[in-house]
Design goal:
The protein has 277 residues and is α/β, with parallel strands linked by helices. The protein is built from eleven helices and five strands, in the order αβαβαβααβαααβααα. The protein has a five-stranded parallel beta sheet with strand order 2-3-1-4-5, sandwiched between helices. The structure holds 2-acetamido-2-deoxy-beta-D-glucopyranose (NAG) (6 copies). One 2-acetamido-2-deoxy-beta-D-glucopyranose binds next to helix 3.
């Protein structure tokens, strides 16, 4: 009967087509999955932010996958790595048994992203990847965090273990005891460069669906996480993170040559960094 053949053809087509577009997990067939990428810089709160996202049962954010050098050795390995994530073939501790409605990873600008931005913009367009930019407003505080984290790599005051993130106030206090001395000659050029790098990245992806978040805003206003969930098109939930902020004191208490830093920044566009959290 031609009708039967037509029917089977339709079923077969639907099956194949459905499978190409979505890889539904068990009971939740046909959920569309939103692809995202968190674009950030080191010490800008992206690890903390990602723990919030992964506390959502329908979100899988697979970590800093391009911290591994060979995955970003050239454009083809970058694209292959992303294909694995967005074909839902990437398994990490963030993988969920639940229905995933949004899947992604986080990517630091200096991990091949700026270098290969043209191909990456094209890829994001083709696979409809949405970008979450996460930057810090206070780049001086970020600088302290970068220096302290790199000091910790060698000194390891927490029982000989290097920790970039901590889960208790006791640990945070120990890490915050280190007060770096800033190189005044490099101070403004480095702040300039960081600011420009972030601005350039946003410009590269201006035509990609994106949202720009600032760490300080998330710290001060957890309702921002609602915007994020809307952006990711996932059902709204209260998200949580067990990470504890390391540097909470006034900046004057965290920089060894505070007076010099203060003097160097006063009267420049970066003066506000001296006072703002
Ligand atoms: C890209 O890098 C990978 C991993 O290092 C390597 O195996 C591959 O041959 C490289 N491909 C090209 C086209 O250079
Ligand atoms: C979220 O996960 C739950 C549990 O697996 C599932 O019932 C629900 O349909 C999922 N929601 C979305 C939007 O994927
Ligand atoms: C170091 O290890 C000891 C013993 O396991 C533990 O009691 C202590 O809290 C640890 N200290 C830090 C700073 O993690
Ligand atoms: C600051 O950095 C510059 C350039 O790397 C270097 O020449 C200079 O010695 C440094 N100054 C101090 C006080 O470390
Ligand atoms: C920093 O950038 C500003 C403009 O953005 C420029 O006028 C200034 O010369 C730069 N300073 C240094 C030290 O690079
Ligand atoms: C907190 O964030 C929400 C969502 O972006 C916003 O609507 C609200 O105005 C913010 N509240 C404050 C006090 O900034």
């Amino acid at each position: 009967m031609p009708f039967n053949i037509l029917f089977f053809a339709l079923v077969l087509f639907y099956f194949l087509y459905g499978d190409l577009r979505w890889k539904p997990k068990e009971e939740c067939a046909c959920n569309p999955v939103l692809f995202f990428c968190i674009v950030s810089m080191q010490r800008s709160g992206s690890g903390w932010f990602e723990t919030f996202l992964n506390s959502h049962i329908n979100v899988s954010s697979n970590g800093e996958i391009f911290s591994v050098g060979k995955r970003r050795a050239n454009v083809s390995s970058i694209l292959e790595t992303m294909d694995r994530v967005y074909n839902l073939d990437w398994f990490s501790s963030a993988s969920k048994n639940e229905c995933t409605a949004a899947v992604g990873f986080k990517w630091m600008l200096n991990q091949g992203l700026v270098e290969h931005h043209e191909e990456i913009v094209e890829y994001f367009e083709r696979r409809r990847v949405s970008v979450i930019f996460l930057f810090r407003r206070n780049l001086l505080r970020r600088m302290i965090s970068v220096l302290a984290n790199s000091y910790d790599k060698d000194a390891k005051p927490l029982n000989g273990t290097h920790k970039s993130h901590v889960h208790s106030a006791v640990e945070a206090n120990i890490l915050a005891k280190y007060r770096p001395r800033l190189n005044i000659t490099l101070l403004i050029p480095e702040l300039n460069q960081t600011k420009e790098t972030a601005a350039k990245a946003i410009a590269y992806f201006k035509n990609t669906r994106h949202i720009v978040l600032y760490y300080e805003d998330l710290v001060n206003n957890r309702t921002k996480l609602k915007d994020v969930q809307e952006f990711l098109r996932v059902p709204y939930r209260d998200l949580e993170s067990r990470q504890v902020k390391i540097h909470t004191a006034a900046l004057s208490k965290q920089i060894e040559n505070w007076n010099e830093v203060q003097e160097a920044l006063t009267g420049t566009p970066y003066q506000r960094f001296l006072f703002k959290d």
